[in-house]
Amino acid sequence: MCSNDKKAARAKYSNWCERRPLAASRERIDAASKYLHEKDLTNIEKNVLFIHDLVDCQGIEFVVFSSAKLTERVTLPGNITLVPCFYPDIQGKSWNDPLVRLSDSMMRRARFVYDGWMPIDDWNRENVRTSIKKINQILTLFSIQERVSTTWEPKYMLHQVYPSSHNIEDQHIQEIVTLHETLQNWKFDDSWAFYRSLGWLSQSLTLPPSPSRFLLCIVTIESLANYIENKAENDSIFSIMKATTKMDKTESDRCIEEVLGHLYDKDKINAIKSSFFDCVHLSTKKMLESHLNNVFKENKKYINLLFKDRIEGKTLYDLRHMIAHGGLDTLSDLQRQHIKDRIWNIEDTARKYLVTILTQIIGKDPFPEKMIKAMIMPFSISAKEKQYVGPTHMAELYIY
């Protein structure tokens, strides 16, 4: 089951720049599948261990996408090998060769595909986790040299959520037309604030599941909430969503006196902070919680998701704080997995927030016609390799 390339490290399952079809007996599949349901492993760790047991691959085979153009095979620290899956120079080559066209497309997009390999001698779980982090660390180093983007993923990822498509029909287009006409009738500032918030959600969907995508979904909510609570005029279309979060001067003075009287002698720093955020200016978190309680009213599901429900000890807002203030280790696959596992929750909350506001303003659900979702699995495991029909060259598989 090894590569035929004698220069390749031992026990590599696929040849260079090939994603060989996975084929194994039912017994091997069942034995290797034990990893796919273990909660203390990340998705990448599950798949690396699964492939190791399934086909006796003695390392991590992975695909790298980068704006950096390497013209030949390189060996990086950590015994990591990268092999270009394209022609470094297509001058003089025939356009009848599919790889010529694929190489040209990579150059035009500045997104090159590489076959990556890192051998592993010790398959205890902590060493596997350390090896994955080493790949993250080494590939990250390119970004400090120049504006070089580099991402990677295991060549075989069976345990993940794959992209889906949605069938948009005439009734869905009509919903968009109707919504556009509605927004056209709003005051400019109100319409602009809504589109700005929606723009953050739209941008988030162009990103892979990542801390950046998570944070853009949070900004979707905070952007419009801040406008409604702190900037919208009294005649704003959003006035019905505005929570009573501001105190008049007399209330603020009384609040400050109470906070300082209670805390100042014990903890001067926290007394000052509390008097400001509790009595003069609500913290972002308190403003947001008050605002969302007013928007969602009796529906506490999304309030709980943001501020109360803890997974691995963190609420969605705790994760927001970690990302925004640099407390997240983006090179840790485990910490990134915690974010990925919660992205659907925050995306669903952001979309539901905007739709709930629209529903309250126009008096009905703006999107009653539900779309049909479709999903295609990129590969499966067969009993024999010849049962697979399709491309195996990585340039074809990962060009987009």
Structural summary, described in words:
The chain has 15 helices and 9 strands. The chain is an alpha+beta fold. The protein folds into 3 domains: 22-162 and 378-397, no CATH class; 164-246 and 283-375, no CATH class; 248-281, no CATH class. A 5-stranded antiparallel β-sheet has the order 3-4-5-2-6. It has a two-stranded parallel ribbon with strand order 1-9. A two-stranded antiparallel sheet has the order 7-8. Strand 3 (74-76) and strand 4 (80-84) form a beta hairpin. It starts with 21 loop residues before the first strand and ends with a helix.
Summarize it.
The chain is of the alpha+beta class and 400 residues long. It contains 15 helices and 9 strands. Strand 3 and strand 4 (80-84) form a beta hairpin.
Label the structural class: alpha+beta
What's the rounded overall pLDDT mean?
A: 85
Poorly predicted ranges: none
How many angstroms does the end-to-end distance come to?
A: 29 Å
